[in-house]
Design a protein that fits this description.
The protein is α/β, with parallel strands linked by helices. It is 38% helix and 28% strand. The chain has two domains: 4-81 and 156-240, P-loop containing nucleotide triphosphate hydrolases (Rossmann fold, 3-Layer(aba) Sandwich); 90-153, no CATH class. It has helices spanning 44-51, 74-79, 97-104, 112-121, 123-127, 138-149, 168-182, 195-201, 219-223, 226-240; strands at residues 4-15, 18-29, 33-38, 57-64, 67-68, 82-85, 156-160, 187-191, 204-209, 212-218. The structure holds adenosine-5'-triphosphate (ATP). Belongs to the ABC transporter superfamily.
C-alpha cells in the first residue's frame, strides 16, 4: 500500500452549537482515488470543508504531506497544492469560460500544453471558451469547475459530489475524465452518492456515519460485498441508484 498524502486523526468539528464531526479518522493514500461515502448528513461535506480550513477542527490533527495543516488557512492550502471543487462548483457565472480559467491559474499565464490536455478531457470547454459560464449546462459547469481545479498540476484534488444532478451520459464522460486524471497519479479525495461512479473510480473507500468513519478499505472489497453495502450504505444506496 502506498503512503498517506493526507491523514485525519480524531478530528472533531463544531458548527455553532452542533457537534458535527465526532472523531474522524481518514487516510488518503498518495497517488490513488479515495471515495468518501455515506448517507445524507453523515458529515462528508463537513469533512472536506474542515480539511480546507473552511470550518475549524475543534480537536484532532490533519496532516498533509507530513505537515500539520490543522490550523492552516484556506489560501495557504491552495498554495501548497490542494485544489477543492465544492458542491456548488464555485465558478463565476458572469465571466466567460476563459476568464474563469485565467483566474484559476495562480502562477501566471495558463500552460498551453496543459490547456490542450484539458480540452481533450472536456471538449465543450474549448467550444464555449468565450461564452459566459452561466450559460453552460449543468454538466459543462461541473467540467469547468474540475478544469479550474486542474489548470495547474496539484498534489491533491478534493471534489464534492461531481455527479450531482447530472444525466447518466454526462456522468459517463466525467468517469472517463477522472480515469485519465488518475492515470497521471494525481491523488484524489471524492465524495459521491452515485454508487456506480464510486465503484468505477475508487481505489480505496471510507464510509461515514454520524460524524465518524465507520468503515475503511479497498473499493474492490465493498463493490463485491452486497451485505457490507447494505449494512454500511443501506437506504442511501437504494435512494441514489
Ligand atoms: N452550516 C451548518 N449549520 C448547522 N448544521 C450544519 C451546517 N452544515 C452542515 N450541518 C449539519 O451537519 C451534518 C453533516 O452535514 P454534511 O453536509 O457534512 O453531510 P454530508 O454527508 O455531506 O451530507 P449530504 O450528502 O447531504 O451533503 C448534517 O446534520 C447537517 O445538517
Amino acid at each position: 500500500m502506498s503512503d498517506a498524502l493526507l491523514t485525519l486523526a480524531g478530528v472533531h468539528t463544531h458548527i455553532g452549537q452542533y457537534h458535527i464531526l465526532q472523531g474522524v479518522d481518514l487516510v488518503v493514500p498518495r497517488g490513488g482515488l479515495t471515495m468518501l461515502l455515506g448517507r445524507n448528513g453523515a458529515g462528508k461535506t463537513t469533512t472536506l470543508r474542515t480539511i480546507m480550513g473552511l470550518w475549524q477542527a475543534s480537536q484532532g490533527q490533519i496532516t498533509f504531506d507530513g505537515r500539520d495543516i490543522t490550523r492552516a488557512h484556506t489560501a495557504d492550502l491552495a498554495a501548497s497544492g490542494i485544489a477543492y471543487v465544492p458542491e456548488d462548483m464555485g465558478i463565476f457565472a458572469g465571466l466567460t469560460v476563459r476568464e474563469n480559467m485565467v483566474l484559476a491559474a495562480r502562477s501566471g499565464p495558463m500552460d498551453q500544453k496543459r490547456l490542450a490536455w484539458i480540452y481533450e478531457l472536456f471538449p465543450a470547454l474549448e467550444k464555449f471558451w468565450n461564452w459566459p459560464a452561466g450559460n453552460l449546462s449543468g454538466g459543462q459547469k461541473q467540467m469547468l469547475a474540475i478544469a479550474r481545479a486542474i489548470v495547474e498540476p496539484r498534489e491533491l484534488l478534493i471534489v464534492d459530489e461531481p455527479s450531482k444532478g447530472l444525466a447518466p451520459a454526462i456522468i459517463g464522460h466525467l468517469i472517463q475524465a477522472f480515469r485519465e486524471l488518475k492515470s497521471t497519479h494525481t491523488t484524489i479525495l471524492m465524495v459521491e452518492q452515485n454508487f456506480s461512479m464510486a465503484t468505477a473510480l475508487g481505489d480505496t473507500v471510507a464510509v461515514m456515519d454520524d460524524g465518524r468513519v465507520v468503515h475503511a478499505g479497498s473499493m474492490h472489497e465493498l463493490a463485491h460485498d452486497g451485505d457490507l453495502q447494505r449494512r454500511l450504505l443501506g437506504l442511501s444506496l437504494d435512494a441514489h441508484q
